[in-house]
């Protein structure tokens, strides 16, 4: 530790840290632009100048850039000294020379770091009399606006996009005061994390295009802490609402999970909440609207009188909603609503996490890995934010080298210069090329069986007790040896696998490798497909197949489906038969879908933005989300519909339900402590969802009724739908919006952390439910190698960030980025079939029915005998894994558009 | 051993031809290299150069031997990638008014090549790059030929002069930009990146090209090295007139009788250079001031003519020796317009990385143009002085903007009346007079 003196006050700080980071974590107001807590220092903007004195006698001092200055014991600096404050003021004056005075119409206004820093530095008078330079703007796709005139050339956009996120289509062009940040030509930004530019840009160059469509100022948005529901990672979000419309999603810092960044699906996938496809009224037989009370009575009556009622839960519904359904229908009548393979995969994963004694890491811990093996996943498409973390772990070898050269890890550019010399060993075994291949030391492409066999071989090389596959090729053997050697040397090796290649063997081989690793700090993580997949696996329940049997065999005659489109889970013929066989079908969901169409009673449910609940992410972290705004009757949270249908239920409130759920399952015992309950008060009042500057409350509904309506009551959470109360110093799980005096942008987060990039003060939100314990035996079930058969192909669904997830696809900007339907084919297979890129192939199931006709894209990394099909259409569920199909070339003149048969 | 008092230019003939390999060898060429690789340890070569007092001729005047001694030495042949080291020759001569390295490369390319090989030997580097200004086509041709000759003769390549030492030299011609002369921007450009400077520390000697220890020296600096090794430290030190050692190429451009370039002892009085070698001012012109070492140095006045042309003496009177090539301001040229011309150059050549340089230099240009066009205000001079202060050394990311401010700050000091006359009288002092 070092003691340093800043403007006469003494502080304790860590030796060698960046002085700027240290000043900010002391809560000192020192402006900056190019520095970012996750991206370190480059010294470009010169805004954080302070005066450093050489010794106690020194009265003059010299200007240094705090971001580039390491903290040392007995250091004496001044932020307030005139030479420093004058320099900072004049530096902003220079930045403002070309900055347009368009704050009133700029979407950054009110949460603009440049505004904040200009205020902070005291630049108020414009001396420059010349003209401003101007730029042309570009169309950058459906997510991001581009307004280059506002650019202050801090270089954070390219440093995030290219250096941090691995993109390459956003660059800096030109020089001197004509530097231009954009693409070489107009077009959608390709990187899956482009949305972070909105928050990384300190001013309004990159703004949220989806927000523009229904813009409101930050201070006019209602916000509550939320959790992303578009994959299994559980990134923390801060959605904003006005006039009953969800307006946008921004990042909510969680030091253990998402840190400062979200993926584009999580940020821009919210449109489904405002979709015209929303179910707004309870419907009986698809036609007549009924009152909520009549709907509840109907449900209640059904449970009393039916021959037997089964409930089908959902991995996209909260623990509480699933638990309420399970309680309503009875444990023996509750089914998880997962497809059969996924059910097995999730049970296997939960068994391993629960009982294998190997640590399952948070994303922060993943960034510490010094060797990585990815088994069967294209993580950018299945758990996108994880891919961003793996990109950071790829830098660990460089950080080690930097330390040996006495280069501080926060010296971002200097550390990155070393990357040509040394790489963190990262290996990717997958069906075909993945979006992380650019950081991979080596890759392997094969069928799921071959991936698993490679995994078993690696495990065997690490520990000869582990079973070994037979008949491996020389190439596979030497790759397995090389991977095993790197993993063995690592202090903190990480094995990543998951459900996306639908193979138990892959998951089991991943476990064997982790078990065989000697390091005590080894880590094993699995991606799971949906926001509460793991929660559902912990809760447990019957298989969907068994639910179908119950009805088809006449054991039960009624079914309640909770937030689940069964057509995404099983063959349509099977689901058709099931729903037609049931005498009564109750569906509870927020959006119309094929299952909802077949309901007798359809209940409108609240989305994540209008309801509360607990989700368990792939790490086993339980996290709570809260309604951002009050939903109007008759839409209700699923849990409310279900509990109100229970006779004599003791569960009046959500907290009761959470507590009961915690009590019912030992593995879920901690969920009640995830966040304070509805009774929580800070300084005697509830936590306001509206900032104190929230405008127009008295008038905003005056077009409907001039009397100001009373704010809706929230009996379920510690939040109020109003602006009274304070948000500073509330527990992190209840922090609705990040703001501090003088810091209106999300950069204020520095003041809520224990040291920049640290944990939130008071602890990062969420409770880990699973800690490493126990020990499992080796898995011995090694599949035999995949053999391509003449004239037959195995379909491999390939997940895609834009298109594979159900709800985000209802957001127009996400749908726009969905790739065109196509099939991927090995070049030799294409040659054998006589097709080239763009030719069309008819896919048939076992020589009979044609199921689809799609254009071909030749993919050199895809092994022979496999057919890659982007899993971007709900209909592709019909092309079931691991089905074998035949292919037939379609004459060019016969067809000219993609077509899907069902 | 002819012309031992002018080691750098002794092979350069007035007939505009150039020294062939045979010419170079005839005057002792490659003897320094032979001595180094057969008689001296790398550390001894470093020590000799350190003892010689040789200081960088690119403008900053950093001790050459000291720079080399900061390179982490180790086993260059080991598999450890950190032990790879590079030598880079900064031949990106783009300082306005400076044309000294061009002469050395065009006229006696083997002298530079021998200097590179000895330098590489001293720091045990096996790969060297010459980063050459793109417009120097003739230099490129002659260096390329000379490199081939040196390879054929065993001065370059594997087992140099039958020793264990290997070296390959690559010639890289720059795509252009003044900032490439800044050594870390040069490294970025060589790596194929934007030519933005890098933060220091780490210095290139610790982490340079591809993140590896890298020595970067100016052409003229390296041309001194063979002679120091061949003729010894004592001989070299005695070449200088003042405390400074060795000789230096000095030049003069502007309205002198004989603009040109001369190799003279370090510490030669500036008056000798201008009056004796450059022949004094052209008839009808008087000396008003001069930039002693290129565009990015402070103006000096006729009263400074007796200052010795060495790093310390010129610094003492408030300017810099820089590249040693002077730009003369005569009494019929407007200093304000001269400064505007320079600032336009610097503003254009700013890489755009740091705020004061990127946005401060264009504002400087705007203000100077306003003043010259008669739109200036008295307070603009304060603004200009503020910009000079703001873009002072240490405040910007590299030395470009502080260098750009040197002629402006000294012009504001020495020629303030010229600025004021524009503002008050809306015309140049010259016209008014």
Molecular structure report:
The complex is a heterodimer of chains A (902) and B (433). With 902 residues, chain A is an alpha/beta fold. Chain A has 5 domains: 94 residues, Ubiquitin-like (UB roll), CATH 3.10.20; 143 residues, Alpha-Beta Plaits; 276 residues, Rossmann fold (3-Layer(aba) Sandwich), CATH 3.40.50.740; 176 residues, Dimethylsulfoxide Reductase, domain 2 (3-Layer(aba) Sandwich), CATH 3.40.228; 102 residues, Barwin-like endoglucanases (Beta Barrel), CATH 2.40.40.20. Chain A is built from 26 helices and 37 strands. In chain A, the strands form 9 sheets. In chain A, strands 15-14-25-24-23-16-17 form a 7-stranded mixed β-sheet, sandwiched between helices. Chain A has a 6-stranded mixed β-barrel with strand order 31-35-32-34-33-36. In chain A, strands 2-1-5-3-4 form a 5-stranded mixed β-sheet, with helices on one face. In chain A, a hairpin with a 2-residue loop joins strand 12 and strand 13. In chain A, helix 9 packs parallel to helix 23, helix 10 runs parallel beside helix 18 and helix 16 runs parallel beside helix 18. In chain B, helix 3 packs parallel to helix 10, helix 5 crosses helix 7 and helix 9 packs across helix 10. The mean pLDDT of chain B is 94. Chain B has 18 helices and 8 strands. In chain B, 43% of the residues lie in helices and 11% in strands. In chain B, the strands form 2 sheets. A 4-stranded parallel β-sheet of chain B has the order 3-2-1-4, sandwiched between helices. Chain B has a 4-stranded mixed β-sheet with strand order 6-5-8-7, with helices on one face. Chain B has 3 domains: 219 residues, NADH-ubiquinone oxidoreductase 51kDa subunit (Rossmann fold), CATH 3.40.50.11540; 81 residues, Ubiquitin-like (UB roll) (Roll); 98 residues, de novo design (two linked rop proteins) (Up-down Bundle). By secondary structure, chain B is an alpha/beta fold. Chains A and B meet through strand 4, helix 2 and helix 15 of A and helix 13, helix 14 and helix 15 of B. Chain A: Belongs to the complex I 75 kDa subunit family. Chain A: It comes from Candidatus Methylobacter favarea. Chain A: One of its GO terms (cellular component) is membrane. Chain A: GO terms for molecular function: 2 iron, 2 sulfur cluster binding; 4 iron, 4 sulfur cluster binding; metal ion binding; NADH dehydrogenase (ubiquinone) activity; NADH dehydrogenase activity; quinone binding. Chain A: Its EC number is 7.1.1.-.
């Amino acid at each position: 530790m070092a003691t340093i003196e800043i403007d006469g006050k003494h502080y304790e700080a860590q030796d060698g840290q960046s002085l700027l980071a240290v000043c900010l974590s002391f809560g000192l107001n020192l402006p900056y632009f190019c520095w970012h807590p996750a991206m370190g220092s480059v010294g470009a903007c010169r805004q954080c100048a302070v005066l450093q004195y050489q010794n106690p006698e020194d009265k003059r001092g010299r200007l240094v850039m705090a971001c580039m200055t390491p903290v040392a014991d007995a250091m004496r600096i001044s932020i307030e000294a005139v030479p420093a404050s004058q320099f900072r003021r004049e530096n902003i004056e220079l930045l403002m020379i070309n900055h347009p005075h368009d704050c009133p119409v700029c979407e950054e206004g009110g949460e603009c770091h440049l505004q904040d820093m200009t205020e902070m530095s005291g630049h108020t008078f414009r001396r420059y009399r010349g003209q401003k330079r101007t730029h042309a703007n570009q169309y950058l796709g459906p997510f991001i606006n581009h307004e280059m005139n506002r650019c202050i050339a801090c270089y954070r956009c390219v440093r995030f996009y290219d250096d941090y996120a691995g993109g390459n289509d956003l660059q800096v062009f030109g020089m001197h005061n004509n530097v231009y940040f954009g693409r070489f030509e107009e077009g959608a930004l390709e990187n899956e994390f482009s949305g972070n530019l909105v928050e990384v840009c300190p001013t309004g160059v990159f703004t949220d295009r989806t927000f523009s469509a229904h813009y409101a100022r930050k201070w006019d948005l209602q916000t509550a802490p939320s959790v992303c529901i578009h994959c299994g990672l559980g990134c923390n979000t801060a959605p904003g609402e006005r006039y009953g419309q969800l307006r946008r999603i921004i990042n909510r810092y969680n030091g253990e999970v998402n840190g400062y960044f979200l993926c584009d699906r999580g940020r821009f996938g919210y449109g489904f909440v405002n979709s015209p496809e929303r179910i707004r009224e309870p419907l009986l037989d698809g036609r007549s609207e009924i009152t909520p009370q009549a709907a509840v009575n109907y449900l209640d009556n059904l449970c009393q009188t039916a021959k037997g009622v089964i409930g089908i839960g959902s991995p996209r519904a909260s623990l509480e909603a699933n638990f309420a359904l399970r309680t309503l229908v009875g444990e023996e009548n509750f089914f998880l609503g997962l497809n059969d393979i996924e059910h097995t995969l999730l049970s296997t994963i939960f068994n391993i996490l629960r009982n294998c004694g190997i640590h399952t890491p948070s994303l922060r811990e993943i960034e510490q890995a010094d060797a990585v093996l990815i088994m069967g996943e294209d993580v950018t498409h299945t758990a996108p934010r994880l891919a961003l973390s793996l990109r950071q772990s790829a830098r660990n070898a460089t950080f080690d080298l930097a330390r040996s050269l006495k280069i501080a890890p926060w010296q971002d550019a200097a550390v990155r210069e070393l990357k040509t010399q040394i790489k963190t060993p990262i290996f990717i075994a997958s069906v075909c090329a993945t979006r992380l291949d650019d950081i991979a030391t080596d890759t392997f492409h094969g069928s799921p069986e071959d991936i698993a066999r490679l995994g078993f071989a690696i495990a065997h090389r690490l520990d000869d007790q582990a079973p070994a596959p037979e008949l491996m090729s020389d190439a596979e053997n030497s790759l397995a040896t090389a991977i095993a050697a790197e993993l063995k040397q690592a202090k903190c090796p990480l094995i990543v696998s998951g459900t996306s290649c639908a193979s138990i063997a892959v998951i089991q081989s991943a476990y064997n490798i982790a078990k065989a690793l000697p390091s005590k700090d080894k880590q094993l993580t699995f991606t799971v497909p949906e926001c509460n997949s793991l929660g559902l696996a912990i809760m447990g329940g019957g298989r969907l197949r068994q639910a179908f049997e119950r009805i088809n065999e006449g054991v039960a005659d009624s079914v309640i489906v909770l937030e689940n489109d069964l057509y995404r889970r099983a063959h349509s013929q099977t689901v058709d038969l099931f729903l037609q066989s049931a005498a009564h079908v109750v569906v509870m969901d927020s959006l119309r879908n094929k299952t909802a169409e077949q309901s007798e009673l359809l209940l409108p449910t609240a989305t994540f933005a209008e309801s509360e609940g607990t989700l368990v992410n792939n790490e086993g972290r339980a996290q709570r989300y809260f309604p951002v705004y009050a939903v109007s009757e008759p839409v209700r949270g699923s849990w409310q519909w279900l509990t109100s249908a229970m006779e004599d239920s003791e569960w009046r409130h959500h907290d009761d339900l959470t507590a009961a759920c915690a009590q019912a399952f030992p593995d879920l015992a901690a969920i009640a402590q995830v966040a304070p309950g509805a009774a929580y008060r800070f300084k005697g009042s509830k936590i306001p969802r509206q900032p104190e500057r929230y405008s127009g409350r008295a008038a905003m509904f005056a077009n409907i009724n001039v009397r100001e309506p009373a704010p809706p009551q929230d009996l379920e959470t510690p939040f109020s739908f109003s602006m009274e109360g304070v948000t500073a110093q509330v527990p992190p799980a209840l922090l609705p919006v990040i703001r501090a005096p003088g810091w209106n942008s999300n950069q204020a987060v520095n003041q809520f952390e224990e040291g920049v990039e640290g944990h939130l003060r008071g602890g990062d939100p969420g409770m880990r439910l699973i800690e490493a314990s126990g020990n499992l035996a080796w898995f011995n079930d090694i599949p035999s190698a995949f053999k391509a058969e003449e004239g037959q192909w195995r379909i491999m669904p390939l997940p895609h960030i834009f298109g594979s997830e159900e709800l985000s696809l209802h957001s127009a900007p996400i749908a726009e980025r969905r790739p065109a339907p196509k099939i991927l084919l090995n070049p030799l297979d294409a040659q054998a079939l006589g097709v080239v890129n763009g030719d069309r192939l008819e896919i048939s199931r076992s020589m009979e029915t044609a199921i689809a006709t799609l254009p071909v894209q030749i993919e050199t990394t895809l092994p022979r005998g496999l057919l890659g099909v982007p899993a971007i259409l709900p209909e592709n569920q019909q092309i079931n894994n691991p089905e074998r199909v035949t292919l037939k070339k379609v004459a060019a003149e016969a067809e000219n558009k993609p077509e899907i048969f069902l | 051993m002819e012309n031992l008092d002018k080691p750098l230019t002794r092979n350069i003939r007035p007939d505009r031809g150039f020294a062939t390999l045979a010419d170079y060898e005839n005057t002792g060429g490659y003897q320094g290299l032979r001595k180094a690789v057969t008689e001296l340890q790398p550390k001894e070569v470093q020590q000799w150069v350190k003892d010689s007092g040789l200081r960088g001729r690119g403008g900053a005047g950093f001790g050459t031997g000291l720079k080399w001694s900061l390179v982490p030495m180790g086993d260059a042949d080991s598999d450890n990638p950190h032990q790879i080291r590079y030598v880079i020759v900064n031949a990106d001569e783009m300082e306005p008014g400076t044309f000294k390295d061009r002469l050395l490369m065009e006229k006696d390319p083997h002298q530079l090549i021998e200097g590179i090989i000895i330098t590489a030997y001293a720091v045990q580097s096996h790969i060297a790059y010459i980063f050459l200004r793109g417009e120097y086509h003739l230099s490129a041709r002659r260096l390329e030929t000379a490199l081939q000759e040196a390879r054929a003769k065993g001065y370059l390549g594997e087992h140099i002069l039958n020793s264990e030492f290997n070296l390959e030299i690559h010639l890289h011609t720059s795509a252009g930009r003044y900032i490439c002369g800044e050594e870390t921007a040069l490294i970025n450009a060589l790596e194929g990146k934007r030519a933005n400077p890098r933060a220091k520390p780490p210095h290139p000697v610790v982490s340079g090209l591809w993140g590896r220890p890298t020595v970067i020296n100016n052409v003229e600096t390296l041309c001194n090295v063979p002679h120091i090794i061949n003729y010894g430290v004592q001989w070299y030190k005695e070449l200088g007139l003042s405390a400074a050692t060795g000789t230096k190429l000095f030049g003069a451009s502007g309205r002198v009788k004989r603009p040109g370039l001369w190799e003279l002892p370090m510490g030669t009085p500036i008056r000798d250079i201008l009056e004796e070698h450059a022949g004094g001012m052209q008839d009808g012109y008087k000396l008003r001031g001069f930039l002693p070492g290129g565009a990015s140095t402070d103006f000096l006045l006729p009263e400074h003519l007796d200052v010795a042309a060495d790093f310390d003496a010129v610094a003492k009177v408030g300017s810099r020796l820089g590249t040693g090539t002077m730009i003369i301001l005569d009494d019929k040229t407007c200093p304000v317009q001269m400064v505007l011309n320079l600032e336009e150059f610097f503003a254009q050549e700013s890489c755009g990385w740091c705020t004061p340089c990127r946005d401060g230099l264009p504002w400087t240009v705007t203000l100077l143009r306003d003043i010259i066009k008669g739109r200036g205000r008295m307070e603009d001079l304060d603004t200009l002085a503020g910009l000079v202060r703001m873009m002072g050394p240490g405040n910007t990311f590299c030395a470009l903007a502080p260098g750009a401010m040197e002629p402006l700050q000294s012009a504001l000091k020495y020629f303030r009346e010229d600025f004021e006359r524009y503002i008050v009288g809306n015309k140049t002092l010259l016209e008014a007079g």
